[in-house]
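Customer escalation, tier 2.

The customer says the design service returned an amino acid string that "doesn't look like it belongs to this structure." They asked us to rerun it and document both sides in this ticket. The original structure tokens are below, unchanged.
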């Protein structure tokens, strides 16, 4: 899996999910004021969403396990003179960051996980998100017809993954911008709060 994503960025390649700008859904979400404080962008790719949030004044750490994507993100941050930190890291083991954040953003990561990985991912997010903090997931929706693209996700699957230690506040229809021939595709935007008082 790591090799697939890393190779997608190598030799100047541009994967279909890298649209060269922040996702419209992220811009709209940030405009609501729901994104607060420090932000972890899990599966940040080449960093456009992280960079957008940094422009709005958020301290941001972007992580991805694709080395080539992080290399590009670091160059973008330097070119734009934005203080975004980018790091190679596994989203299934965010405890290794030894930091917690007010907000976690996941754009196009959740739908890449197998069933057995989802519980581990929820626990990983909990380790990186302070109690009361919010995670925002933007993923492929089961409203898309089957064919090319990643696995389709249902609202029920999102709610089931985050049923313990979390409150799923909303799973709303959204759009995910892509380089596919159809352009943007149906997505879900989930708003999920970590509950509890401990760390």
């Amino acid at each position: 899996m790591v090799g697939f994503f890393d190779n997608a960025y190598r030799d100047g390649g541009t994967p279909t999910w890298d649209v060269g700008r922040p996702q419209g859904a992220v811009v709209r979400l940030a405009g609501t004021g729901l994104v607060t404080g420090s932000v972890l962008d899990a599966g940040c790719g080449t960093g456009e969403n992280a960079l957008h949030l940094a422009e709005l004044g958020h301290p941001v750490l972007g992580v991805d396990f694709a080395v080539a994507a992080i290399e590009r993100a670091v160059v973008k941050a330097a070119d734009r003179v934005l203080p975004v930190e980018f790091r190679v890291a596994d989203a299934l083991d965010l405890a290794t960051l030894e930091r917690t954040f007010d907000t976690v953003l996941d754009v196009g990561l959740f739908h890449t996980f197998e069933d057995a990985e989802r519980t581990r991912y929820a626990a990983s997010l909990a380790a990186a998100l302070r109690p009361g903090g919010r995670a925002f997931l933007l993923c492929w929706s089961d409203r898309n017809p089957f064919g090319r693209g990643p696995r389709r996700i249902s609202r029920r699957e999102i709610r089931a993954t985050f049923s313990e230690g979390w409150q799923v506040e909303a799973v709303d229809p959204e759009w995910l911008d892509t380089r596919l021939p159809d352009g943007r595709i149906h997505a879900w935007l989930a708003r999920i709060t970590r509950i509890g008082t401990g760390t």
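Tier 2 assessment: The sequence is consistent with the input. Helices lie at 2-9, 24-31, 48-55, 67-80, 115-128, 155-161. The longest helix spans residues 67-80. Sent an explanation to the customer and offered a walkthrough call.
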